[in-house]
Amino acid sequence: MISFQEFIKDCEKNCNKVQRKSFKKDEIITTYIAKRNQICILISGSADLVRYDSNGNKTIVEHFTSNDIFGEIFYTIATNNELFVKARHNSEVLFFSYDLMKHKCKTNCAFHKIFQDNLSELILSKVTMLNTRVELLTKRSIRDKLLGYFSILSVRNFNRTFSLPFSLTDLADYLSIDRSAMMRELKYLKDDGIIKKNGNKITLLIQ
Amino acid sequence: MISFQEFIKDCEKNCNKVQRKSFKKDEIITTYIAKRNQICILISGSADLVRYDSNGNKTIVEHFTSNDIFGEIFYTIATNNELFVKARHNSEVLFFSYDLMKHKCKTNCAFHKIFQDNLSELILSKVTMLNTRVELLTKRSIRDKLLGYFSILSVRNFNRTFSLPFSLTDLADYLSIDRSAMMRELKYLKDDGIIKKNGNKITLLIQ
DNA sequence: ATAAAAATGTTGCAACTGCAACTAATAAAA
DNA sequence: TTTTATTAGTTGCAGTTGCAACATTTTTAT
Predict the structure, then answer these.
(1) Which residues of chain B does A74 touch, with a Cβ-Cβ cutoff of 8 Å?
(2) Which one of A92, A129, B55, B99 has the fewest beta carbons within 10 angstroms of its own beta carbon?
(3) Which residue has the higher pLDDT, A91 or B37?
């Protein structure tokens, strides 16, 4: 899998069906509109999949970092909600067409072959990410959502102390909760000695 | 894709690496414990992926009907939560090992080939399902969750009137909300003339 | 057929969460 | 460097949701 990820980074050298583009902070990387069956892979930087619903509520549907995969192919747009991916930091992104990659390249290039062999694995990583997301969102209280998310970050970082990947405002949009209510709960968590907070650095003090 | 689904149903004739089993209502189809990389396909019937968290809250993580795919391979178990799939009706299920299916069959059987060719598509259907799930769960109120779910069922059924696939008690566990609060909201929706309800048959009256 | 269990339906009340409206602090732009 | 915009942090209040504790109906088991 690692070797595939390394390989991916050199993909334009391997296949002319792939495009690499750079994005500055806050630029829109792609908008989910038509069914272009686009697949994107984030090479470097970070980005968010953002949705605005009909009530104007913003949701950060997913947060992407290096090697994460996204694109229309993963999202059948049932509603009229606006859906786009926005760069959080300067980012580099690869663009493929799923349909083109699914079928053999005319030139029978090695890239196509390797991509096809690893496609399932790539999509499976997405499934895992989404399951984690569902697990967070099904938690019944703001406190449990926060602690659940902190626990994930703590495990990923091999450390009880970790940085939030985005601002507190965006954290609320990610957990699908009101920002002020979240701030209040963060205070309670501090008061109860469950977390320590210093800017966007959090430390889990229990368990 | 249809032909693949049809093909799948005859799979034991095609490959001895596949098992078909029948389950009675309420039987446990599989438990997500070890990383056996199991993939299951529901041939007939219906089933739920159920999770109990440390607070004893039950969540119906997913609801499966014919041709849906599930299994440990899709779920990296990060927490100690109990996770299992339970038959809602009498069901028939195919079991594969992802690892066995990934690699060529010793006998080079046709089933393996077709399975591999369609694996990505199969997993993509899972991603779509999960995205729909996330969209529901990020809705901010009980009313919006109910209407969002009803809208999905209405579209799937090509009809403003449809049956709920499970009991109201389970619907609450699926939407991750309190049952009595949900019942109250259902009453308000009726009072406001937004839905009509007759047992587990719902009709959307607006839009 | 009858008892037991599960699901539905209801309600008061308390707790939690969202909303609005601020101030303070920090970051970005002119 | 100063202004402007964004983010963080607070709080009162109202509305929503969860909890508990029922009664009623339906389903399942004996």
Answers:
(1) 124, 127-128, 131
(2) B55
(3) A91
Q: What is the CATH number of the domain that holds B195?
A: 1.10.10.10
Token pair of B196, please?
């009509």
Q: What is the pLDDT of residues B73-108, one digit of tens each?
A: 888 766 777 889 999 999 999 998 888 777 766 666
Are residues A134 and B133, on separate chains, in Cβ contact within 8 Å? yes
Cβ-7 Å neighbors of strand C:
A 140-143, 177-178, 180-182, 184-185; B 140, 167-170, 179-180, 183-184, 186-187, 197, 199-200
User: Closest nt to A170 (CA→C1')?
Assistant: D7
Residues B77 and B160 occupy one common structural domain: no
A116: Cβ contacts below 8 Å, ≥ 6 apart: A101, A102
The verdict on A83 and A111 lying in the same domain is yes
CB contact under 8 A, B79 and A127: no
Full residue range of the structural domain in which residue B22 is found = 4-122
Residue partners of B205: CB distance under 8 A and separation at least 6: B160, B193, B194, B195, B196
On whether the CB atoms of residues A64 and A48 are closer than 8 A, the answer is: yes
